[in-house]
Structures are given as structure tokens and as C-alpha cells.
Amino acid sequence: MHTSLLRRSLAAAAATGGAAALLLAAAGGAAAHVGITPDKTSANSSALLTFAVPHGCEESGTTKVAITLPAELNDAQPTVNPNWTVEKVTEQLAEPKKLADGTSITKRTSQIVYTAKAPLEHQLRDTLVLSAKLPDAAGTTLYFPTLQTCETGQTDWSEIPADGQDPHSLKTPAPSVTVTEAASTGGHGAVAAASHSTEQTSAVTDGGAEARSWAGLAAGVGGLVLGGTALVRSKARRSTAEPAAK
Q1: What is the pLDDT of residue 201?
Q2: Which of 11, 3, 1 is nearest to 232 (CA)?
Q3: Could you tell me the sign of the dihedral formed by the alpha carbons of 182, 183, 184, 187, in that order?
Q4: Which residue, 133, 211, 178, 155, is CA-closest to 34?
Q5: Residue 56 and residue 152: Cα distance in Å, rounded?
Q6: Are 127 and 53 in contact (CB under 8 A)?
Q7: How far apart (Å, rounded) are the C-alpha atoms in residues 225 and 218?
Q8: How far apart, in whole angstroms, are the C-alpha atoms of residue 142 and residue 140?
Q9: SS3 per-residue string spanning the chain
Q10: What are phi and psi of 208, to 5 degrees?
Q11: CB 47 within 8 A of CB 144
Q12: What is each CA distance from 86 to 65, 116, 153, 163, 226, in whole angstroms?
């Protein structure tokens, strides 16, 4: 009787551990994406876009990160990072592009390339920051295809979801930011606070997804452990009660 109870208890514990391992793997996958955390998302605003660089390709250190700017942006200013050198790549436009102030440009910054002074080890993370003026187009999602080159191999974070497709279903999604309505300039404190709150909750960031993944993981593992414990206790009580009934 006791041997049977022990086997059932071990089986329950194994099932709990297996499910927890699956949850850990899922959370690890969500945290591995290159993502953007913007300090603001309102239309026509100057924003700081922080790119999180995850572990390298498998276990190979990262040597270069090339961020492609969406067509809606004409330029971006890279922030100096002491661990990397950085350069701006420009492209010649097929025809002059007229700006809102009436001037025209014939070239635009198409890419920002960070090159590591020493490979970023796969178990470490780093952040790269760009300053850019967001377009006056609320509701537009800006995608930043990012090529992560490693000592061995590379990962091209460039997948863009089709209409109606869940972005989280993509294996290598391009980092993205969704532009929100322009912030109010009326000077009313409550309106300004509401606008700030909207910017924070509307931003599309891998950092937010990562936090939600770990919160879900903690809740899921906690539930599995409690369930497994309750099962073991129930079996123990039943085993004790059976001899008494006889």
C-alpha cells in the first residue's frame, strides 16, 4: 500500500515538474526576442527607443547589431554605448522627399549599425538606444528589422505579422512601436497624466511581454505545486483511513 502511494506521489511530482519546465521554456523564448522600450509613443514626439539585445545565436557571442529604420523615419541619433562602436548608414532616395516644413531631402538614414568591441557573451544582455522623431500618424506601427550577427551564425529579427496574425506567434519578430495620439498641450494636469498613461500602456515592447511571461510563469508554477501537494496529501489521508475502516 505504501509502495503504491509512493509511486503515485512521485508520478504527481514528476508531472508538476514537467509542466513547470515547459512554462520555463516558454518564458525563456519570450524573453529572448530583440524588443523596443520607448519612453514615449505619442505622434510627432521625440522618443528614446531602447533596444534590448538578448543572448546570442545559440551559445555564440553577439558581434554586431544592425537596426533598419522604417520608411516613416528619415533619421535617428544613436546613443553612445562604451561597449560598441556605431555608424549611420544612409541611402539615396529615388526622388526628393518633401518634409512638413516645406523643405526636401534626397537622402535618409536607413540603418544604425552597432559593432561590439568584444563579443557580447550569450549569457549577458545589453541595451542600445536611438533618439528619433515619431511620425504624425497615430495608429501606425513602426517596425525595425534587426539583424543580430554572432561569432557563429546570425538571427534576423525581421518577421512582420500579417493582418490579423498574432505577433507572438512569430519565431523572429521585428521589434515594433505603435504610435499613439499626440499628447495634449492644454496644460491640464489630469489630461496630461491620462495621456502619459496611454503612452505607457499602448507601447509595443518585448520588455512588457517579458514581464508578463514571468508573472504568468510564477502563477502557473505556484498552481502546479499546490495541486501536486494537495494530491499527495489526499492520497496519504485515504491510505490512513482505509485500515481504520476495515
Answers
A1: 38
A2: 11
A3: negative
A4: 155
A5: 9
A6: yes
A7: 11
A8: 6
A9: CHHHHHHHHHHHHHHHHHHHHHHHHHHHHHHCCCEEEECCCECCCEEEEEEEECCCECCECEEEEEEECCCCCCCCEECCCCCEEEEEEEEEEEEEEECCCCCEEEEEEEEEEEEEEEEECCCCCEEEEEEEECCCCCCCEEECCEEEEECCCEEEECECCCCCCCHHHCCCECCEEECECCCCCCCCHHHHHHHHHHHHHHCCCHHHHHHHHHHHHHHHHHHHHHHHHHHHHHHHHHHHHHHHHC
A10: -65, -40
A11: no
A12: 10, 9, 21, 34, 50
**Cα 34 from Cα 22, distance rounded (Å):** 22
CA distance 76 to 132: 5
pTM: 0.65
Residue 97 to residue 69: CA distance in whole angstroms: 16
User: Which regions of the chain are under pLDDT 50?
Assistant: 1-3, 5-6, 9-31, 187-215, 217, 221, 224-226, 231-232, 241, 244-246
Residue identified by cell 497615430 is 138
Amino acid residing at 166: D
- Angle, alpha carbons 175-204-41 (nearest 5°): 105
Grid cell digits, residue 56: 546570442
Q: Using one digit for the tens of pLDDT, what is the confidence trace for 43-65? A: 999 999 999 998 878 889 999 99
Q: 205 vs 40, 44, 86, 155, CA distance in Å?
A: 12, 19, 23, 19
